[in-house]
Write a structure and sequence with these properties.
binds tricarbonodiimidic diamide; globular; six-stranded parallel β-sheet; alpha/beta; 10 strands; two-stranded antiparallel ribbon
Length: 226
């Protein structure tokens, strides 16, 4: 085990059973003209974490540990998108309608791609998920079990929506979950802070939280061996 200083208490990372999950770092949420923008959000906040997420991904790649990327994505015929989700929020453009980066939240469209700086490489798993959580209708739990994964490190956007939902789903399925707090962001400063508070409260009711530097510092002895 590699012990990482974390809140609410140190997180024991199992190096042969850990995967990184990067949630929805796609243009639809991070760039103007996408889904996040259509809901009235200031998307600039999210772009700022790209270097930290890149550093986290590089750390996992350097260890040879699995990296999983998710995208919030629907089939072109929207058969996997409930009408309630399409209607929700009175957006300027609805899911499936065409914006500056193609059809919003539709698989294969330019806006649905992961931002270039964080692009998956060969061998990494990319999950298209129709929900906010990463397990709903994806088969991911079965894939993780077949890989022997028991520990999940989380990054991505947005903290209180798809990241928190995925982390809670993972917690219920028995995974030991760590959120890298400077590798996640919300459109709302207060919601990110509240989500982190909720995760670590009550002795880590949902999991653990630590900054990237704490994870990297804990790995230095490991790195020296490879
Ligand atoms: N709107 C918002 O904050 N988030 C989402 O709709 N999806 C994700 O968090 N990926």
């Amino acid at each position: 085990m590699i012990t990482i200083p974390a809140r609410p208490y140190p997180y024991d990372l199992d190096p042969v059973h850990t995967a990184l999950v990067v949630i929805d770092m796609q243009r639809d949420f991070i760039e103007p003209g996408g889904f996040g923008d259509s809901l009235g959000n200031d998307v600039a906040r999210l772009e700022a974490i790209i270097p930290t997420v890149a550093g986290l991904i590089a750390t996992f790649r350097s260890q040879g540990w699995p990296v999983i990327h998710t995208r919030e994505a629907h089939r072109p015929d929207l058969s996997d998108c409930p009408p309630s989700k399409i209607a929700r929020g009175n957006p300027s453009l609805h899911i499936g309608e065409t914006g500056a980066m193609g059809r919003l939240l539709v698989t294969g469209e330019p806006g649905n791609q992961i931002v270039a700086a964080l692009a998956p490489i060969d061998g990494e798993i990319v999950i298209d998920k129709p929900g906010k959580g990463m397990f709903w209708a994806t088969g991911l739990h079965e894939r993780l079990k077949s890989m022997g994964i028991t520990h999940l490190v989380f990054a991505g956007v947005t903290t209180e929506v798809c990241v928190q939902t995925s982390m809670r789903e993972a917690n219920d399925r028995g995974y030991e979950c760590l959120l890298v707090e400077d590798a996640t962001e919300s459109y709302f400063v207060a919601f990110k802070a509240a989500t982190i508070d909720m995760i670590v409260a009550q002795g880590g009711i949902v999991g653990w939280v630590a900054p990237l530097a704490a994870l990297q510092a804990a790995l230095i002895p490991e790195t020296a061996h490879v």
